[in-house]
């Protein structure tokens, strides 16, 4: 850039590049000063002051309507649990076990299709509502009066990576914002010391990797923060400085350096998000250790969740569920739990179905039921929405002899708390449990319902990108009203 001294006679006219660079830096500097003057907290958050929805790309100043839920706990069953072995009993599979399958088979992932395969587990009526649940889930079965089961889910993808992106982001390809990022962007969080979108990683990141929790084109401050299952969930969460004053001096220096970079780079979401994340990281050094300190929980609570269970993976998931409850108490809006690594491959049983599904269910059944009961006993279930689902289901016919292949045409999800009418069953698959045929529910419908219960109209929460207003539900989605309380 050509330097222009104020005393130079007849200074040269600035080039277009000079003018654009100077203007951009000036605007960026003003934005950065605003951020730094507000203790580094970037104001993407909603104010909740009763003002009408406003802001960039549909960003909310307040919910569109009164929310029924304030927190979502996303219990993600990575790999694809079998609907006909969990929450969708099909007597016809028992009657025709081992016989050629009675419907046209769609192409499958591996096309090693066998005969009709009955469930190895018995189904029993649970709760006063009488919803039939497999013996895989005796603990969750005891909570069915609070749970609405959606037996008519369908998805667009039969491969794990695309299916995971679709369930998390509403789009089957990499690069879109995760559901938790949309909620963080749209509603923000009342807790400034913890991220608005927390992923409690039990050991398995879904295929597709961390992009399942990414913020996509939204500001990076809204991406998911992954906490490990152990006592120290985040690297460097304990300060190394000898005193708080010494740490504050370092942070002040970083703030000064960030301001210089922001001025040089102009108005840049990446720089601004980095500043926000640095400040949040400093506050997390106080909040996270206290969050993870569960020694103060009663012995009864620890037993309820299964922290004393013989199966190690039950203990891992129990800790995740207990920390999730503590995050709910601290106002974190979106919490996702990933599965622990068991002795089988996720819920993805292409063979050895009985062994694999039993290991996976044993890990999560008791802790999930404990989370529901604990939230209910503390008066938190009414404002907390739990969502249980995989990316798709599994075939009612065998893969080989003792497995099931991927099936996106019909599977089961369930919802609990936060404005859901418990004890209900919505939709149905055919007599084999293969395809959704009654009151079909798409992934976009599920997303629309989650946003609705948070007080958000899914058609109005948008972000301007690539020349159009983009939303989580794309141009689809209907709220599943029959399951609402």
List the helices and strands and how they pair.
Blueprint: H1 16-37, E1 71-76, H2 91-95, E2 113-116, E3 123-126, E4 131-134, H3 138-141, E5 147-154, H4 160-169, H5 179-187, E6 197-201, E7 225-228, H6 244-265, H7 269-292, H8 299-305, H9 312-329, E8 334-337, H10 353-377, E9 384-389, E10 393-394, E11 397-399, E12 406-407, E13 411-416, E14 424-426, E15 428-429, E16 436-438, E17 441-442, H11 443-453, E18 463-465, E19 468-470
Parallel strand pairs: 1-8, 1-9, 5-14, 5-17, 6-7, 6-8
Antiparallel strand pairs: 2-11, 3-4, 5-13, 9-13, 10-12, 15-16, 18-19
Helix pairs in contact: 1-6, 6-7, 9-10
Description:
With 485 residues, this protein is of the alpha/beta class. It has one domain (58-238, 291-483): Alkaline Phosphatase, subunit A (3-Layer(aba) Sandwich). Helix content is 32%, strand content 15%. It has eleven helices and 19 strands. Helix 1 (16-37) packs antiparallel against helix 6 (244-265), helix 6 (244-265) runs antiparallel to helix 7 (269-292) and helix 9 (312-329) packs parallel to helix 10 (353-377). The termini are far apart. Residues 1-9 and 28-58 have low confidence and may be disordered.
């Amino acid at each position: 850039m050509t330097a222009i001294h104020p005393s130079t006679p007849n200074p040269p006219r600035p080039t277009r590049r000079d003018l654009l660079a100077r203007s951009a830096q000036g605007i960026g500097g003003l934005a950065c000063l605003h951020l730094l003057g507000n203790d580094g907290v970037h104001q993407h958050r909603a104010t909740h002051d009763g003002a009408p929805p406003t802001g960039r790309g549909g960003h909310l100043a307040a919910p569109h309507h009164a929310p029924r839920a304030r927190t979502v706990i996303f219990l993600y069953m990575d790999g694809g649990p079998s609907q006909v072995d969990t929450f969708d009993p099909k007597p016809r599979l028992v009657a025709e076990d081992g016989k050629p399958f009675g419907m046209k088979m769609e192409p499958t992932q591996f096309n090693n299709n066998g005969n009709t395969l009955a469930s190895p587990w018995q189904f029993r009526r649970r709760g006063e509502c009488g919803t039939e649940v497999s013996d895989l889930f005796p603990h969750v079965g005891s909570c069915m009066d609070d749970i609405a089961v959606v037996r008519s889910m369908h998805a667009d993808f039969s491969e794990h990576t695309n299916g995971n992106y679709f369930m998390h982001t509403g789009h089957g390809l990499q690069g879109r914002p995760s559901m938790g990022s949309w909620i963080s962007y749209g509603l923000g969080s009342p807790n400034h010391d913890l991220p608005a979108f927390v992923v409690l990683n039990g050991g398995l990141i879904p295929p597709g990797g961390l992009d399942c929790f990414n913020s996509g084109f939204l500001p990076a401050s809204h991406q998911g923060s992954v906490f490990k299952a152990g006592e120290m969930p985040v690297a460097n969460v304990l300060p190394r400085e000898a005193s708080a004053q010494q740490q504050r001096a370092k942070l002040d220096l970083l703030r000064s350096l960030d301001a210089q970079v922001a001025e040089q780079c102009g108005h840049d979401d990446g720089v601004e998000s980095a500043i926000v994340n640095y400040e949040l990281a400093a506050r997390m050094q106080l909040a996270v250790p206290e969050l993870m300190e569960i020694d103060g929980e009663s012995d009864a609570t620890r037993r309820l969740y299964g922290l004393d269970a013989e199966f190690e993976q039950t203990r891992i998931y129990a800790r995740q569920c207990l920390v999730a409850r503590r995050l709910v108490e601290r106002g974190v809006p979106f919490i996702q739990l990933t599965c622990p690594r068991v002795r089988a491959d996720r819920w993805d049983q292409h063979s050895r179905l009985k062994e694999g599904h039993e290991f996976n269910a044993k890990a999560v059944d008791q802790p999930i039921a404990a989370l529901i009961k604990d939230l209910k006993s503390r008066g938190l279930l009414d404002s907390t929405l739990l969502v249980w689902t995989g990316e798709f289901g599994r075939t009612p016919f065998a893969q080989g002899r003792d497995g099931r292949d991927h099936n996106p045409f019909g599977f089961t999800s369930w919802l609990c708390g936060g404005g859901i009418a418990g004890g209900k069953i919505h939709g149905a698959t055919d007599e084999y449990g293969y395809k959704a045929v009654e009151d079909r529910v798409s992934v976009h419908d599920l997303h629309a319902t989650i946003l609705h219960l948070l007080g958000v109209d899914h058609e109005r929460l948008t972000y301007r990108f690539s020349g159009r207003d983009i939303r989580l539900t794309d141009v689809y989605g209907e709220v599943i009203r029959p399951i609402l309380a």
